[in-house]
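STRUCTURE:
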């Protein structure tokens, strides 16, 4: 039977929402500089008029803004507000702040909280250390392909081999064009060392003088939740100090996993049944 007018309208409306959300996610992968329309069209698979129409709708809602100088499309103020509200609800940053402050106090280096977002790593917070010479290779809100950076590499190393293969293959084009120091074979070599050592090291591949060390932590169901990492100039990342820093990271990672387990147990008691953790992905 032919679809009714209402059914066709509902289907069309749902498709528009799906497309708009896909554009929002695409723009969110470049939170600092945004994306030009050409890249949005290519990345979304939509034609130019459709992409522009949906972008205008997102702009009206405050979820997207267009940078006056570059004409790039960036996340808008409303997206930031929603992100803050979501962060409060999920509580991952709140749980990590004590660990981040302690790591930066003890080591004098800059500490980071990163989370996985599909094939990418997103820096949720940067806690400055007191050592006078600092590294600026990673800023809050920046997103890199998994394997690029210490925390990002730690999360990739914590995944199953099939997932690692799929992610590296999916990210290969962007690695080749935007991350010349992170060819897939280099990432695989760093990943093997990370699994052997129990912690990941970025040996200055993103910025030559900036080294990092990271360890992933998991949700109670075993999924990778995020990573804690430390970054410093290369002279402060000699092999002996790498082991020392890994020793500081290990108890904080254990603390994060314990707090996450307690949080989910508490939530399950409140509602009287197990909380579907997948629905609370950070």
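SEQUENCE:
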């Amino acid at each position: 039977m032919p679809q009714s007018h209402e059914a066709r309208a509902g289907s069309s409306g749902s498709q528009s929402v799906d497309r708009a959300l896909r554009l929002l996610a695409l723009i969110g992968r470049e939170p600092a500089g945004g994306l030009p329309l050409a890249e949005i069209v290519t990345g979304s698979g939509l034609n130019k008029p459709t992409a522009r129409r949906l972008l205008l709708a997102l702009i009206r809602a405050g979820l997207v803004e267009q940078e006056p100088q570059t004409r790039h499309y960036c996340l808008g103020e409303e997206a930031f507000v929603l992100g803050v509200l979501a962060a409060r609800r999920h509580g991952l940053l709140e749980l990590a702040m004590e660990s981040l402050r302690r790591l930066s106090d003890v080591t004098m280096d800059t500490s980071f909280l990163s989370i996985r977002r599909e094939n990418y790593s997103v820096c949720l917070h940067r806690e400055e250390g007191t050592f006078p010479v600092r590294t600026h290779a990673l800023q809050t809100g920046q997103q890199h392909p998994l394997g690029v950076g210490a925390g990002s590499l730690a999360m990739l190393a914590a995944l199953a081999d099939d997932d690692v293969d799929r992610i590296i293959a999916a990210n290969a084009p962007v690695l080749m064009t935007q991350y010349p120091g992170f060819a897939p074979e280099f990432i695989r070599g760093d990943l093997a060392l990370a699994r052997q050592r129990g912690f990941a090291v970025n040996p200055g591949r993103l910025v030559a003088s900036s080294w990092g060390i990271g360890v992933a932590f998991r949700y109670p169901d075993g999924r990778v939740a995020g990573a804690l990492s430390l970054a410093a100039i290369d002279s402060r990342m000699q092999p002996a100090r790498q082991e020392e820093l890994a020793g500081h990271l290990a108890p904080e990672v254990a603390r994060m996993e314990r707090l996450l387990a307690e949080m989910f147990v508490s939530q399950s008691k409140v509602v009287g049944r197990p909380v579907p953790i997948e629905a609370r992905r950070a």
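REMARK: DSSP finds nine helices and eight strands in the chain.
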